Amino acid sequence: MNYDLIERENAVLIKNMLDFDPKHIFECGQCFRWHLEEDNSYTAIAYGKVINVKKDGCDIIFSNTDMKDFRNIWYRYFDLDRDYGEIKRELSKDPILKEAISFGQGMRILNQEPFETTISFIISANNQIPRIKKAVELISNDLGDYAGTWNGKDYFGFPVPEKLANLDANYIKDKYRVGFRAERIKEVSRLVANKEFDLNCIYNLSREEGKNLLTTLPGVGPKVSDCILLFAFDKSDAFPVDVWVKRVMEYFYLKEETNVKHIGMHGARIFGKLAGFAQQYLFYYARELNLGKEKKQVIGNR
DNA sequence: GTCCAGGCTTTCC
DNA sequence: GGAAAGCCTGGA
Q1: Protein CA A262 to sugar C1' B3 (Å)
Q2: Cβ proximity of A197 and A214 under 8 Å
Q3: Which range has the worst mean pLDDT, A83-92, A248-257, A269-278?
Q4: CATH code assigned at A214
Q5: What highest taxon heads this organism's lineage (predicted)?
Q6: Residues A152 and A197 grouped into a single domain
């Protein structure tokens, strides 16, 4: 992809950027560390660096960085090599997705760090986004390395597996407010720290192979494994089925209540290699519509 | 083998 | 007080 990149003091700017809206990217549920500032910019830490992202008209401003880090880290992190215009054109052949995309046209799928993503989505099980964010921040602030300060807030990286593996599960539960997920966090951290489980090898596996491997971890089932594969390992055919995607698929496609396994197979069948992108547009759409229980009841009458 | 109810921590709405 | 980006266990 060709971009009009401009280097400023402690910042990089992309002129006339299409398919990039911070709100759509950071509030579609794929990440838990992006902090909304008063000026509607977002700040986060990834790969040991603090960065602030702001949409300024048609331009995107990446602050607290330089061209070197932009090329080495952020270009891949923000998935800038992918043509989202082409993906949207293809998915828009489906009228339901065309509508969903109109709500979240600036969404992109991030390439996040494997261990942090794995633990974050283990925490996400039967949980709420504000609580997930709080737990990830508590863990990082307690165990992670200081990476910088932006707008008066200190940012700490997500810790290496050894740090979590060495803690008592009760300490993890009480200190980070993760409840029954504490044992799972400790055990997965231990397996990764001891090299009994190699996360990095998943980069070279298919979605199916990666899923078979990830679901051997405690706390990682079908949904969480698909999230890890999609948000950390670039498996864009992964189709995580959470309650929101379940509702939106039942309401618009299947026209009946069914189980998540059935919905997962249906999603893979109709969206194929683009299932992951479709899932993100649909997830954002379902939440924006607040497609809750009251609408499920309409299904039988359609 | 598959399917599904019940339990799990804590907080947010 | 019910529900929440689910997973695990055990019984049918």
Answers
A1: 12
A2: no
A3: A248-257
A4: 1.10.340.30
A5: Bacteria
A6: yes
